[in-house]
Amino acid sequence: xxxxxxxxxxxxxxxxxxxxxxxxxxxxxxxxxxxxxxxxxxxxxxxxxxxxxxxxxxxxxxxxxxxxxxxxxxxxxxxxxxxxxxxxxxxxxxxxxxxxxxxxxxxxxxxxxxxxxxxxxxxxxxxxxxxxxxxxxxxxxxxxxxxxxxxxxxxxxxxxxxxxxxxxxxxxxxxxxxxxxxxxxxxxxxxxxxxxxxxxxxxxxxxxxxxxxxxxxxxxxxxxxxxxxxxxxxxxxxxxxxxxxxxxxxxxxxxxxxxxxxxxxxxxxxxxxxxxxxxxxxxxxxxxxxxxxxxxxxxxxxxxxxxxxxxxxxxxxxxxxxxxxxxxxxxxxxxxxxxxxxxxxxxxxxxxxxxxxxxxxxxxxxxxxxxxxxxxxxxxxxxxxxxxxxxxxxxxxxxxxxxxxxxxxxxxxxxxxxxxxxxxxxxxxx
Length: 430
Ligand code: GUN
Ligand code: ZN
What we know:
Helix content is 39%, strand content 23%. The protein is an alpha/beta fold.
């Protein structure tokens, strides 16, 4: 886009991680703020009056009392599960076999993959999510469909071909060699093109032979600047199964570690039932953990130790995990993170929840130098939140004494109706 746009509203900016700095020091609120957008980037953030005086030529978009924040970053999702979200009544392995694998088989058809990719981005953008890190299916065309759709919308996005060579139905299995070859070809076609990154994606240890995990490790060693995503310690019966499949492994993480899949740039979805060794090793490796709270409640997986791991200094992202997760909304996901925190005895502050959904997830994806913050030089992926989007939220927010009390009802009760406007690389969508 050409020219300058000055967006007016309330602004919240983070100076530090609110898990490690007091909220007053970590976050700054300006009730009459503004964000200057130029050439798809944030050119300035500051008081509206001063920025208007300094940039009289800028087109003004006045969002009134809406809260301007960085667009949401969903650090773990399965776009192919869009159409089976909210499927009733199974635990993880049953749920995969009953709902997920049959649906993923349909992505052998590139036209179906393209239809669902378009539907998926319609839903995530309506919810204010401007970057997702998604699994695709084993079909290379499912990756092409996802990236082509993201690219046509100017989105920053991360994804990879999901690799599985055992314990999956006929039609959803590749081999160690074909997974390596297909992943490498897709990586070479898409990684670093426009705003896209390729993630090396072994689904999880139960569906990969040691040979396939080794092939993924070899590929990652060749392309260490690519992220690597997989699942770790989601359900207790899954962990028992992993110990049977890998009798020599010290623990679940070791099944990845033994094949070169633990290091900076790794993203471990769920990571709920970790041993002390796993926690220490993940931290030492500076690998990222991804908290998927609606999914963990929906599939009955358990309570992720957000507070403890956050204080320990782990790199942690927040994610919907659609369609194991029950929502496309990162607001709903923040609410679930709050509820799971409460069940764990730690009330996460609204600043921590918003930080996780933006800067924290961007940091988990190692994209925090580009997205996740309202700050000069960042790509202009921005959301305007209406903090009074429903009568129930409005009547509670009317009593608020500070920005956190004003925001929290939208975190707990808000949905796509709260998303007043979304900018992708500076371009307004609505
Ligand atoms: N573990 C392996 N695959 C999946 C998946 O698709 N969803 C969830 N929630 N867990 C998984
Ligand atoms: Zn997942």
